[in-house]
Amino acid sequence: MAKISPVLEIKQPGLLATLQDRGRSGYLAAGITSGGAVDEYAFLWANKLLDNPADAAQIEVTLGGFEANLLRRTQMVICGAPMQVALNGRRLPTWLVFDVEPGDVLTIAAAPRGVRSYLAVRGGFRAEAVLGSMATVKRDQLGGLRGDGSALTAGDVLTAPVLSAPALLPRRPRTDLLQTQPANEPLTIDVIAAGQYERFSQQAREQFCSQTYQVTAAQDRMGMRLQGPKSLSWEHDQILSEPLPVGAIQIPPDGQPIIMLVDRQTLGGYPKIGTVTWRSRCLLGQATAGTELVFNRVSLAAAQNEWRQFQRFFGSA
Amino acid sequence: MSMRIQMSTAAENAVMLSLIDEQGNSPLSIACNEQLHALADWLLDQHHDCIVEVVPSYASILIYYDAMNMDEATFIARIQPPSDWQKQHRQTTTNSESEHQIQVCYDTVVAPDLERVAQHAGLTVAEVITQHQQPTYHVYALGFAPGFAYLGDVPAAIRCPRLETPRQKVPALSVAIANQQTSVYPMESPGGWNLIGQVVELPQLKAGDKVRFIAIDLDTFKRRRQEVSHG
């Protein structure tokens, strides 16, 4: 078994830096949510570029402001938001594997677009898994470096296995695989009809798919509130609370959608008009307040095909 | 009670199973919920090869399935319970639900909303305490936070709506009521339910379990809490 040794010390965590993997599974019935990387697409790319297992833990950095000292030689990559990354003050591209030496200083500074960066190291960061996962979920007080759901703070030292495998060549994904939001167009978010879709009125369903929504500042790892010109109405009684899948689009009484992300509560009582596809919810994980988006209804079969292809590609099924 | 099973898409890899009555509604009843939990057990027991995780709640179960290898229609056809699944299930499984007794201190020192609940009900504090202990509660579902169990049904006489403005911090182990439901907050968290007591210890509950609350006085509560914290 590979020796585990310190690899990085946090100097500044920024707004929120947490240890994340692909999340907990098997405990939803106990009220314990999944957690994990919000933009799992970027997360899986980072592990793939480093030849890591798909589930190897990484640091999810929110809106930059992050600084760390490197403690030994290894290789890293930063995927996700187009943040300004620098090593010892020299700019580094994102999505490209780079070498680090002891004494190096790595910084991730905020950019006008994008929310979350994924900092990965060869072999993956290590911490004691809690209920099968290192994913940090503050609300559940589970996971992370201390196992109690707390975020990373200045002075935290992270460890990773020391690998004897030869160094990787610097490599990055083919550019056509890195779908990004066109600068002047609304983001297209694919949704499948799910939940109470059939019980919403024809008018509400049409409004939902035709109007342009804005992402608001009311967003975190649990969910994201949107604002649209017209609110959607639900013309029935309240529903009984139901389990919530990640990506569920809830319509609360004010008629403005809330999209559930990976730290969602396990049960919710608002009617749901659909579920955002896996690929689209990864895109939402990078949407800052003010981002415009439109919903595009896709068939379940199309959504499943896309999801299966990604899972096979990343070896993460 | 004649209930139908309705399946609907929930996500790329999940379906929602709902129990509905003749009018198409999902009823909030202990009988319906007991049937639902039995169904969740039956599904896991019979179809663990294609089911990844089940999440039962009041009248619906979210089922994550092996969507890498199976499309939704195939999965739904595969898990369709036969009409006599309940009979089969009773024959093959033993009752795994357990009954818990939980000691509660209802002293107003640890029950900041008890007097208001009593006023709302037009009862004395002592009557509210007696009423709250009267039922054997049913665990409908777990959610909101790890280990937070939705218990019912609270006697009609002491039902009280949620607070208009939730508290930022509810102390851990507080006993609370909201409408027909009661619960114990497993950890300190925000919360909008009415706080009517505190427990010394909260056993791990699972959906379908039964719970009885037993009153203890403040001295016993303090002593027991000391014993627990000194392990």
From TrEMBL, chain A:
Note one Pfam family from the annotation.
CT_A_B
Ranges for domain Carboxyltransferase come to: 29-313
Q: Which residues form a coiled coil?
A: none
Alphabetized UniProt keyword annotations? ATP-binding, Hydrolase, Nucleotide-binding
Q: Which GO terms describe its molecular function?
A: ATP binding; hydrolase activity
Protein name per UniProt: Allophanate hydrolase
Give the originating organism.
Answer: Pseudidiomarina aestuarii
From TrEMBL, chain B:
Q: Which residues form the Carboxyltransferase domain?
A: 5-213
Look up the domain of life of the source.
Answer: Bacteria
What this protein is called in its record is: Allophanate hydrolase
| Lineage per the UniProt record | Bacteria, Pseudomonadati, Pseudomonadota, Gammaproteobacteria, Alteromonadales
Q: Name one GO molecular function term.
A: hydrolase activity
Q: Which organism is it from?
A: Pseudidiomarina aestuarii
Ordered alphabetically, the record's keywords are:
ATP-binding, Hydrolase, Nucleotide-binding
